[in-house]
Design brief:
Distance between the termini: 49 Å
Order of helices and strands: HEEEHEHEHEEHEHEE
CATH class of one domain: Alpha Beta
Strand order of the largest sheet: 6-5-4-7-8-10-9
Helix content: 25-40%
Radius of gyration: 17 Å
CATH superfamily of one domain: Vaccinia Virus protein VP39
Number of strands: 10
Shape: globular
CATH topology of one domain: Rossmann fold
Length: 228
């Protein structure tokens, strides 16, 4: 039976708040990517069905939209991708469906990992989802996507720089506009000269910052290239 907003099926039970939000979720189109709740009509060129369950990641939150726009810009085709704070798996699954060479997705919440695997299977793609600590990951990855809060960026910045391949791209989202400078500075410091700010984009009070390691890989599409 297909999941619905009234009769959900999935790997874990849903709390009341998660059940209540389902009737309000709508599809979102960002570039080539169309992310729709699994009970809605597909949209977009790359059609991705996501049941967020009790996790973060229904595709229309501004911080997610910003990363999807970066993913569309840089292109995951044939590249190794790391999705940090994967939630429902929307970013990693979009990357996989657009032709990523490999996708690793991590989250500290076991429910998020369960729903990421569930959604990946529903979309017919494979990825490696786990609660493995970022510090334990090997890498490197050509495209690192981290949609997490500033406090988590502060904890993970050094490891995310380490995990970004030379010539690769790191996208840091989940950052309120008023804290964007702070997050930019901590990544530049963690990069110790290896990480180059490419640009930052803003949407509805949130900011995503793109960096290249060892030089530009994907190019700039505006913002404050060359400065934190």
């Amino acid at each position: 039976m297909a999941p619905s907003h009234t009769d959900p099926t999935g790997p874990t039970e849903l709390p009341d708040w998660a059940l209540a939000q389902r009737e309000h979720l709508e599809p979102a189109i960002v570039g080539r990517f169309g992310v729709h709740p699994s009970w809605c009509r597909p949209v977009g060129r790359v059609q991705v069905s996501i049941d967020p369950g009790p996790t973060f990641g229904h595709g229309s939150h501004p911080s997610t939209v910003l990363v999807l726009a970066e993913l569309d810009q840089f292109g995951p085709e044939g590249r190794s991708v790391l999705d940090v704070g994967c939630g429902s798996g929307v970013l990693g699954i979009c990357a996989a469906m657009a032709g990523a060479g490999s996708v690793v997705a991590v989250d500290v919440d076991p429910d998020a990992v369960a729903w990421t695997r569930f959604n990946a299977e529903a979309n017919g793609v494979s990825l490696d989802a786990s609660t493995a600590p970022v510090a334990d990951l090997g890498g490197p990855f050509e495209l690192v996507l981290a949609n997490v809060l500033p406090s988590v960026h502060a904890e993970l910045a050094a490891d995310l720089v380490r995990l970004t391949a030379d010539g690769g791209t790191l996208v840091a989202s989940g950052v309120p506009e008023e804290r964007a400078d702070e997050v930019a500075v901590l990544y530049v410091a963690a990069g110790a000269g290896e990480l180059v700010p490419e640009h930052r984009n803003r949407f509805d009070g949130w900011t995503a910052l793109a960096f290249s390691k060892g030089g530009s890989k994907g190019g700039s599409k505006g913002g404050s290239k060359g400065s934190p």
